[in-house]
Design brief:
The chain is mostly helical and 93 residues long. The chain is 73% helix and 0% strand. It starts with 5 loop residues before the first helix and ends in a 5-residue tail after the last helix. This is DUF507 domain-containing protein.
Length: 93
C-alpha cells in the first residue's frame, strides 16, 4: 500500500518545485510541466520500490519462519532484514 495518495504526491512535488524555483536551484531546459511530472514519477517509483522491498522481506521472513519454527521473532527481524535488503538494492529508506 502506497504511503501517500496520488494527490499528496502531486502537492509534494509542486512544493518541491516551487522551493527549488524560489531558491533558484533549478534552471529549466524543458517545460516546467515536464520537470513536475518527472518529480512525481520519481517519488511514485521510489514508493513502489519500497513496497516491493517490504513484500520481499515478508516473503523472506515467511521462509525463515518455516525453517526455524518457534525460534523466529518477526517483529525483531523485519527492520533488520529490510535494512539489509535495502542496502543490497541501494534503496535509501
Amino acid at each position: 500500500m502506497m504511503k501517500l495518495s496520488t494527490s499528496q504526491i502531486q502537492r509534494l512535488s509542486e512544493k518541491i518545485l516551487k522551493q527549488w524555483k524560489s531558491q533558484q536551484l533549478i534552471t529549466f531546459k524543458v517545460d516546467e510541466k515536464v520537470v513536475l511530472q518527472t518529480i512525481i514519477d520519481t517519488i511514485t517509483n521510489d514508493f513502489k520500490r519500497e513496497e516491493q522491498l517490504e513484500q520481499d522481506v515478508h516473503a523472506l521472513m515467511d521462509q525463515m519462519e518455516r525453517e526455524h519454527e518457534g525460534q523466529f521473532q518477526r517483529h525483531k527481524m523485519f527492520p533488520m532484514l529490510k535494512q539489509k535488503l535495502a542496502k543490497e538494492r541501494k534503496i535509501i529508506l
